[in-house]
Structure formats: C-alpha cells, structure tokens
C-alpha cells in the first residue's frame, strides 16, 4: 500500500506568488513572498525589487509557521501573548516561528497542502497580500 501526500506543486506555487506580486504592486508595497509544501519545505520565493532584505527569512518563516501549526500567523500571534495558551511559542523551532500576520495555510479539499508567507509591509499589508494568494489558490 502506498501513502500519497498531497502537496502544492511548483507550478501552483508560482501562480500563487504571481497573484501576490500583483496585489503588492496594486498597493504599491514591495514584498517577499514564499510558498512551502505540505512538509514545510520551501517550494518558491520571490523578493520584489526594493523589498526589504530582512523580510526574506521572515516570509519563509511565516510560511513555515503557518504549515507547522496549520493556522494563520496572525491567529497564532493572538494566542501567543502573555497569559495565552501559546505564550513563548516564537522561541521554539530554532526561532523560526513567526507570530505576526502574513502567513496562511493553503488548503485543497479541506486539507492543508502547503502554506504562504508574505513580508515587507505593515501587518495589514502583509495579510492583504497573503489573503489574495490564499483566495486564488483555494478558489
């Protein structure tokens, strides 16, 4: 018996990134955009012209976080504040866990097959670009 893991393809990752890039251009904010597969491994990444260098790893780590916990990084951030159930989680996984908006799981038929991470603007801008990519992918 063979187990097949459903995951996002490179072609799909590129298409999601293209939609995110268009949204970033619409809001006039250069972004870093990363897509990871079902295992949390990087599939594709872009750094738009003039996007912050420091946001390269943040975008990748937002995607990783969204896949590792199958939750948006924005929602995880709300639950990781003092007194909440995940307080301190950002210190786990060698510091790769991001707890601010811009990371979203990507679902196909109700199952997580990858994740998207966006960084380079305000939290609101990062979330808007990520939402555009998620909406495109999930139809």
**Strand order across the largest sheet:** 2-1-4-3
Radius of gyration: 14 Å
Count the domains. 1
User: So, CATH architecture?
Assistant: 2-Layer Sandwich
Q: What structural class is derived from the secondary structure elements?
A: alpha+beta
Which fold name fills CATH's third level, the topology? Beta-Lactamase
Number of helices: 4
What is the distance, rounded to the nearest whole angstrom, between the alpha carbons of the first and last residues?
A: 32 Å
- Gross morphology is globular
Secondary-structure element pattern, one letter each: HEEHHEEH
Short note summarizing the structure:
40% of the residues lie in helices and 19% in strands. With 139 residues, the protein is α+β, with helices and mostly antiparallel strands.
Structural summary, described in words:
The chain is α+β, with helices and mostly antiparallel strands. The chain has a single domain (10-138), classed as Beta-Lactamase. 40% of the residues lie in helices and 19% in strands. The chain is built from 4 helices and 4 strands. The protein has helices spanning 10-26, 55-69, 73-79, 123-138, and strands spanning 32-37, 42-47, 103-108, 111-119. The chain has a 4-stranded antiparallel β-sheet with strand order 2-1-4-3. Helix 1 (10-26) packs across helix 4. The termini are far apart. The relative contact order is 0.23. The mean pLDDT is 96.
Structural descriptors:
139 residues; globular; 40% helix; alpha+beta; Beta-Lactamase
Topology readout:
Elements: H1 10-26, E1 32-37, E2 42-47, H2 55-69, H3 73-79, E3 103-108, E4 111-119, H4 123-138
Antiparallel strand pairs: 1-2, 1-4, 3-4
